[in-house]
Amino acid sequence: MRAALPRHFSRRWAVLLVCSIAGLAIAFGSRIRTGPRTLIIALDRDVLPANGYAEAQLHAQASNGAKPAGLTWRIENARNLADLEVADSDARLRAGVTPGVVTLKVLAPGFGTARVNVQLGLDPTDQFGDGTPDFLRLQSEDDRIAFRHWFAFLAESTYFQKDEASPKEVDDCAALIRFAYREALRKHDAPWANQWRLARLPNVASVRKYQYPHTALGPVLFRTRPGAFAPDDVTNGAFAEFADAESLRRHNTYFVSRDLSAARAGDLLFFRQEGHRMPFHTMIYVGKSYFGESTDSDWLVYHTGPIDGHAGEMRRVTVTELLQHPEFSWRPLAQNPAFLGVYRWNILREED
User: Fold this and answer.
1) I want to staple 76 with a disulfide (CB 3.0 to 4.6 A). Which of 103, 190, 204, 223 is the partner?
2) CB 98 within 8 A of CB 214
3) pLDDT tens digits, residue range 197-227?
4) pLDDT digits (tens, 9 = 90+) for 27-84
5) Residue 294 has pLDDT above 80, yes or no
6) What are the two backbone dihedrals, phi and then psi, of residue 350, each rounded to the nearest 5 degrees?
7) How far is residue 229 from each of residues 124, 125, 251, 348, measured CA to CA in Å?
8) What is the pLDDT of residue 293?
9) Which DSSP string corresponds to 51-101?
């Protein structure tokens, strides 16, 4: 039979046991209180078509439903894939036109970092069946105006540049168009202007929907074969960085009119001169000059391409001068069979 412990001894152990349990509880409770709290990101869509307009709405809150202070939203990767607009605990993600995964990160003082992924998928829609995917089309009027201004400005500025500053790639009419088209879709900041030695720029915003080359097609802009757009066209050679004048007319622009009065800034005039080694020729309709001309005349610019063994040159003429060209085959008149008409870029195409 065991001897009974003294009463004061049992009481002492009981007190120690209670204190130990209380200490553990305090320590555990302190760990919970000092550890990072949890942020939760709610979103209405985690898969978007990469069409330049689709949006996902996001909301950040604490796990207990409270609104955290000092929230910071960031695109952690792939900054060229999407745009993010933030209003405190709410955010809106607008898809770009390049497929991929966008990772969003949200931070707040006292909380652990929260992340969420949004998948952007290729959108193969081609509403006009002309071979140009809708993700390249400029559906907003502001973007269409911006493109027209930049395209026409860049074409006209090439005429005024000195030989050593002019783009070396521009050696014929199609090369001028490819250059102006590509650069019109860039982000027009100071480094870009310095690259092309442009001393003056139009007071026009850049195209907002996307900036070249950040599209599903990358650097290849110009369609080179007939047919409506299909997903395989991204990689099967249907698009290229190079396109001659005939390909530009057939696969990248659409017919507007054989009446020159229908032309707008940035439109193209096409001619087919039978008997020429390169029969297709094109001119860019600038409209009013960007270089301070006092006249109210509308202007056109073009590159002649090689002439009689020489490299050719940039030329700039008024509409009136072209209508009075000594060779009838160069006059943009409906009765001139060599004049194919006014054409407009597929990316500017609108529903009738």
Assistant:
1) 103
2) yes
3) 998 899 999 999 999 999 999 999 999 999 9
4) 333 333 345 689 999 999 999 999 999 999 999 999 988 889 999 999 998 778 999 9
5) no
6) -125, 160
7) 7, 7, 11, 16
8) 67
9) SS--EEEEEEEETTS---SS-EEEE-S-TTSEEEEEETTEEEEEE-SS-EE
How far, in Å, CA of 79 to CA of 105, rounded?
Answer: 12
- Both tokens of residue 190? 């100071």
Which residue type is seen at 18? V
User: Which residue in 157, 159, 167 sits closest to 201, CA to CA?
Assistant: 157
Q: Residue with structure tokens 């850049």?
A: 206
Tokens of 29: 């409770």
Task: Using only the alpha carbons of the chain, give its radius of gyration.
Answer: 32
Q: Give the burial class of 83: count Cβ atoms within 10 A of its Cβ; 0-12 exposed, 13-18 middle, 19 or more buried.
A: middle
Phi, psi of 221 (to 5 degrees): -105, -25
Q: Name residues whose C-beta falls within 8 Å of residue 212's C-beta, 6 or more positions apart in sequence.
A: 182, 183, 185, 186, 219, 221
3-state SS assignment for residue 171: coil
pLDDT band for 352, please (50, 70, 90 cuts).
Answer: confident
- Say how far apart CA 157 and CA 105 lie, in whole Å: 43
Task: Tell me whether residue 162 is exposed, middle or buried, using C-beta atoms within 10 angstroms of its C-beta: 0 to 12, 13 to 18, 19 or more.
Answer: exposed
Q: What is the pTM of this model?
A: 0.86
Per-residue pLDDT of 248-276, as tens digits, reads 999 999 999 999 999 999 999 999 999 88
Cα(41)–Cα(299) distance, integer angstroms = 54
Question: Do 124 and 230 contact (CB within 8 A), yes or no?
Answer: yes
Widest distance between CA atoms in the chain: 133
State the CATH architecture for 39-121. Sandwich (2.60)
Question: What amino acid occupies position 126?
Answer: D
Beginning with the edge strand found earlier in the chain, give each strand of the sheet holding 314-318 in spatial order.
253-257, 339-345, 268-272, 280-287, 299-303, 314-318
